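User: My collaborator sent over this chain with a note saying "see what the structure looks like." That's all I know about it. Can you take a look?
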Amino acid sequence: MIRDFSKFSEEDFNSELAQVDWGSTFARAQGNIDAAFSKIYNKLNKRVNKHAPLKPLSKRKFKQSLKSWITKGLLKSIKVKNALFVEGDIDRYKSYRNKVTTLIRQSKKRYYYTYFTQHMNDMKKRGLESMR
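Assistant: Without extra context I'll predict from the sequence alone. Here is the result:
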């Protein structure tokens, strides 16, 4: 799940938060810190969900989020590659595809090199299982 900020209005969100009666929230908690926090959290979470609702990630976006070596620049290049394929320009598509594939391989190699270099002495983080 990811927050959808496409229709988020900071002004509307702030004005709705200003309308909340926080004093009565504290009064109803009667000195119980846990109850006060729970009430504040629920009120705030309700407003956040209204203005920036959670939406499910597509399978494709979820898989990409697991691959830490895929950067924003690579995502843009992949979109250009896909657009070239749709246009039907086979020669330009193949050339661009090969460049993007090379960049992805280099990025993945660099990511794992830096990861294992940073965690050289930490056996718990050295294993690939802990990366997921």
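A starting point for your reply to your collaborator: Residues 2-55 form one domain.
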